[in-house]
Amino acid sequence: MPEDGPVSASIVPLPVTPRPVPRAAPADPRIAETQPLRVAIGHSSLQGRRPENEDFVGSATPEGAELLSRGMLLAVADGVGGHANGREAAEMTVRSLLADYYATPDTWSVAKSLDTVLGSANRWLLAHARRNREAAGMATTLTAVVLRGGRWYLGHVGDSRAYLMRGDQLTQLTEDHTWEHPELENVLKRAVGLDEHLVLDHADGELQAGDRFVLVSDGVWASLGEAGIADLLRRHRTAEDAANAMPLEALRRGSTDNATALVADVVAVPTASLRDSLVSAARLPVPPRLKAGQELDGLRVEELLHESRVTLLYRVSRPVAGGREELVLKTLRPDAGDDEAIAALVHEEWLARRVLAPCFPQVIGHGERSHLYYLMTWHAGQTLKAHLARGHRYAPHEAAELGVRLLKGVGALHRLGILHRDIKPDNLHRDAHGMLRILDLGVAASDGEDRGERFREINNPGTPSYMAPELFEGKPASEASDLYACGVTLFELLTRKYPYGEVEPFQNPRFGNPVPPTRYRPDLPDWLEAVLLKACARYPAERFETAEEFLLALERGAHRPLATPRRRPLLQRNPSLALKIFAAASAVANLLMLYLWLGR
């Protein structure tokens, strides 16, 4: 009888009973009551005939907000055989993944989180192998599944496998990364710790109650095959029984490898489509239009700050020890409270809660809310657009300083996987102390949303004059388009103009070369003009790649200016066009001379 190998990371028990939900019908009957994701998990790992068990299996099942935002994580790894450190590679990779995945921002997509965490593990394995000769070649396969909300996500490298049993149909979700070898068993061509650049396969799909996810090492699937795995899943109804049966049956059929299996049975899937903790806010009614002096949930309205086509912003106050605290209340106009607007406001609050940086207003809690709104910190001051309207003339050093603060904020967003998509002077606020804050995440999008659907809208949101040229071609927003908007904003602060002229709504503009800002401000230093022209370049490849690169160019200023190439003559840039122009000019000149000669 084979000996049991060491069992992997422990499984945190998941509560069987969901948190009670009020039985009153929601305001919108299409929004169902929520229940948490519930999954039953079992796993087993057997050493078999090998001298040690180089497989490692683990899972993490958080609760509450973490379960909602990051989901459950399942993983199986198989250390590369023949190396003394195969087990260490497998265990370190799985343990790092289980710990570090939950430390990534929940605005990141699952794929980005897996790539980042496993990329770090890959670098550690390679560095460890370089330092220790006995660890040379240590590597591991890795197959991970994340169950979050109503979807599953897969990250995979190597020849461990993941299967999905839905109904009576077993589907393989992974592809083996192996080379065929005439003398050896299949050789891994991709694994964690094998190459400097780790490439994971990713996949995702919709979850259904009753789904069974199976993660197995090659010691199981190579012996059982799909038919054997499917048969055991049908015969064993619980996840624990099925997970125990697979390695035992694989060894009984003659497997000479370690045998590991993890089975996860999806018991219940959340019924609501929103995955954040603010889902209950979508059930609240939109408040009526408020006037100064009126109260809402203990908040006294002081004044209406701003009204757009969809939203309203009020300055409100509430009693605190020693006086009253002033806040900003954001809600919808009473005539704009449709499903799309409600979802957008709830999403905006969800994003704003996660951007914890001094260059953004912070969301403030206020107990139970009777209406749909959220609160932010209040800061006295004005937007940069208001400063321009008052006639303020920005000096070059002042605009550069504002640019530094702006790019620090935009960089913080991009590190969280968030695109603002509407950077402009109207959305930049300067308080009485000179602190710059970025406002309005109403059209922002994060890659933490399911497959980043908001990044791929048919009509990109934003303000036309600040939208990058590629957005008018239907390409999705990106970090490059955010940085372009930053460049246009600085250009406008200094010149009151736009690098390509003002773009009207529904206009399909044509972009040539940006107008040099010194045409409007001859006093601008050369280095600053070079920075602005690079930031506002027509093509993304010619702009700054990251907010940090743009920031560095502003901070270095005249001390280390950008190395901008001189504009080459047309003959050098496009010889054929230059020759055509020369030929055409010569022909015109000859015709003119012939006309004058005949006229004599």
Task: Sum up the structure in keywords.
Transferase(Phosphotransferase), domain 1, alpha+beta, Phosphorylase Kinase, domain 1, single chain, six-stranded antiparallel β-sheet, Phosphatase 2c, domain 1, 600 residues
Outline:
By secondary structure, this protein is of the alpha+beta class.
**Order of strands across the widest beta sheet?**
1-2-13-12-7-8
Radius of gyration computed on alpha carbons = 30 Å
So, CATH architecture of the largest domain? 4-Layer Sandwich
The fourth-level CATH homologous superfamily of the largest domain is PPM-type phosphatase domain
Largest sheet: 6 strands, antiparallel
In the predicted model, the low-confidence regions spanning at least 5 consecutive residues are 1-33, 272-277, 565-570
Class by SSE composition: alpha+beta
What amount of the residues lies in strands?
Answer: 15-25%
CATH third-level topology of the largest domain? Phosphatase 2c, domain 1
Kindly state the percentage of residues in helix: 25-40%
Estimate nothing, just give the exact number of structural domains. 4
Q: Helical region count?
A: 13
**CATH class value of the largest domain:** Alpha Beta
Q: Span between N and C termini?
A: 116 Å
Query: What is the residue-mean pLDDT, rounded to a whole number?
Result: 85
Tell how many strands the DSSP assignment holds.
24
Shape: globular
Work out the oligomeric state of the chains in this entry.
Answer: single chain
